[in-house]
Design brief:
Blueprint: H1 3-10, H2 16-27, H3 29-32, H4 37-44, H5 48-57, H6 63-72, H7 80-94, H8 97-115, H9 118-130, E1 134-138, H10 143-155, E2 160-163, H11 170-174, E3 182-186, H12 193-204, E4 208-213, E5 226-229, H13 242-258, H14 260-276
Parallel strand pairs: 1-2, 1-3, 3-4, 4-5
Length: 283
């Protein structure tokens, strides 16, 4: 199990000091791999006893056992160049690239289903339904699930803004948000700085903030009212967005089902327009 997923599973059993250690490990993964107990305690600003108690709370036999797991999960934290080099080497040894990627995506989906509490998902659906306006921010690769979410949510006549740098000034676009709105941020390691900054601004304005990210220790999670943790591991130079798109699909399906009359009316009107404008091919 990835370290982030383990932290999520045990979060309610960890003290504030233990969470500080876990957060340091996640944010300084490469460095933490090689730190002694005393050095890790000093870096995280806690006692050595806190580090030891963290390993025990997470179910490890001791600190060396936890370090072993961290090293096994190192691939999640490598740079794109290093990851590409490792993926090429592994692919040359294996050869079954199609099977390898699909198996990893299957694992990501299973891990995501295990990680997301039903009550958190239901709260997300409730906030999406009740929001006056929804602002979606997903940059670089994360723009794919953000675009899907924003596009199809607009089909249900929800007021949606997909924040996209380069098309407009995102700060002007988000100006005036308030407590009746919702900002959804989507980002994975390595997290995009602008996404984190926009969520922090939204939180300061008293706006509801939801995030789709890899773990509760993600920098996006600091400003969030709810977090949908999604597995994105892929032994390649890219992250996998399969599970994040699946979560977006689930949110859209749940929203449409919970407002059936509005959904049918909105889609009937759109179908009439698409037919009039001959948007799709007909046989």
């Amino acid at each position: 199990m990835p370290f982030e997923s383990l932290i999520l599973e045990k979060m309610d059993r960890l003290t504030t000091a233990q969470q500080r250690v876990a957060n340091f490990i996640i944010e300084h993964y490469d460095e933490a791999l090689f730190l002694t107990v005393s050095r890790l305690a000093m870096k995280a600003g806690v006692s050595e006893a806190t580090v030891i108690r963290l390993t025990q709370a997470l179910g490890f036999d001791g600190y060396p056992d936890m370090q072993r797991m961290l090293r096994e999960n190192l691939q999640n934290r490598l740079s794109t160049v290093t990851r590409a080099e490792e993926a090429i080497k592994h692919a040359q040894d294996d050869g079954d690239i199609l099977g390898q990627v699909i198996r990893q995506d299957t694992q990501n989906l299973a891990q995501t289903l295990q990680n997301i509490p039903v009550e958190t998902f239901n709260q997300a659906v409730k906030d999406i339904r009740s929001a006056r306006a929804i602002y979606v921010i997903g940059l670089r690769g994360a723009h794919a699930p953000a675009l899907i979410f924003g596009l199809y949510l607009s089909f249900l006549r929800k007021k949606v803004h997909i924040l996209t740098p380069g098309i407009g000034d995102v700060w002007n676009n988000i100006l005036g948000i308030g407590s009746e709105d919702l900002v959804l941020g989507i980002s994975f390691p390595r997290y995009t700085r602008l996404t984190v900054e926009l969520l922090a601004y939204a939180h300061e304005q008293g706006t509801k903030v939801g995030v789709i990210t890899d773990s509760v220790m993600s920098p996006l999670a600091r400003e969030a009212d709810w977090i949908l943790p999604v597995a994105s591991r892929l032994d390649s130079f890219i992250e996998s967005f399969t599970a994040s798109v699946s979560v977006v699909n689930a949110l859209l399906a749940a929203v449409s089902i919970q407002m059936p009359d509005e959904t049918v009316r909105a889609l009937r009107d759109r179908e009439a327009l698409w037919k009039e404008k001959q948007i799709y091919m007909t046989s």
